[in-house]
Amino acid sequence: MIPIYLFTYNCGKQPIDSQTFITGCVKDLPDEVCELYVFALQEMCGIMDGCFYDTANHYAIGYSDAFIRALSAKYNGANLRFKTVGLVHVGAMAMVVISPFASKISRVRTATVSYGIGFSSLKGGVGVRLAYKLSDTRSVDISFGGAHLPAHEGNDHYTFRNKVSVAVMRGLDFGDGYGLLKPDSHTFFLGDLNYRTTEKFNPHSPEMQSLWRLQDQSAQQSEAEIPTLVSRYDELTRAMARGEAFMGFAEAPIDFRPTYKYETHTAIYKRTRAPSWCDRVLYQSCYPQTQPQVHRYAAVSHILLSDHRPVSLHISIPDTAPDAIVSAGGFQLVIEPTGGGVEVVGPTEVYMKPTGWDRLVNSALRRLSDASLGWGLWFLTTSRGRLWLLGIVVLALGYNWLFP
């Protein structure tokens, strides 16, 4: 078995408070050393900073350093050297993969995909695929996708989220002919998936009262209600049960409180939003024999820096990859439940390999959109930008006056 720790966090565009953040991470890390530590970030910086690669890279490296420091502090007596083996970011999204056994990791590939407004990187995903060495003669691929899916309540937004989740998995181009889904690879999908608990927010509705009661940290009765509330109200749970999203994936049982939306720096839910389990970690589940072992799936309730709570999954996966849920031709396969689990029974019409359109969007169109958005915000929201804009206007008026 391969023990892995996965962590997803929407940072809420808040500046990193290194020591507070590191302390919170140390408390959540498992006592047992894992082979891989995977951290997915959303909104690690503001929109403007995310539009400029070098600026966003500074934030991503800062978080990578914080994760290394947290791991080193947690396993101080284990004589281990943690190393970042994969780092990728686009916009304000990033993924950091760290291992204390870097010599076991090879063939690291990264990918990014954008599905924000105007093809910008406001929404989309990042990915890391690597080969993990099992022995001198054998290795297995493991693929990680981190995403920030579209927000908002309502059936139209729910349907759009499902559509974008497929587009993100398809559009993550690792350069090996496949998107996130690849035969003979373990696969994880995590991030701020933005699935909600209501179609229309009504603060007086029974579901809102039930969800807001979970805010009482001392109420054991409310905590016991969580699985029932998840099955009753959570969009993603219902979508996966109906086969409308993430076919071939599974999620550990949720027994933690909704991870969104909090008043920043507090454990108090914002009264203008429905508390929702937006932050999730999913894993491919079509294993023919030995099944993954979930050790812990939890919200990191002591990191209060954002309006989200981080979510972590400690899991051990078999050495053997699961059955493929995408064909060699790139079409997603049908997954049906059986008495002992699930069975792959045939192809669908859903194409899951990167297309020429995906490559165009993630090269030229995204760069153009991000540059326009970034420079537009710089001119309008920063002191230097407004001075430059004023200067340009003065020069234009002067030129028009001198040369009518």
TrEMBL record:
Transmembrane residue ranges: 387-403
Entry's Gene Ontology BP terms: phosphatidylinositol dephosphorylation
Span of domain Inositol polyphosphate-related phosphatase: 1-323
SMART domains: IPPc
Coiled coil: none
Gene3D superfamilies in UniProt: Endonuclease/exonuclease/phosphatase (3.60.10.10)
Keyword terms, alphabetized: Membrane, Transmembrane, Transmembrane helix
MF terms in GO: phosphatidylinositol-4,5-bisphosphate 5-phosphatase activity
Domain of life: Eukaryota
Pfam families reported in the protein's UniProt record: Exo_endo_phos2 (PF22669)
Name of this chain's protein: Inositol polyphosphate-related phosphatase domain-containing protein
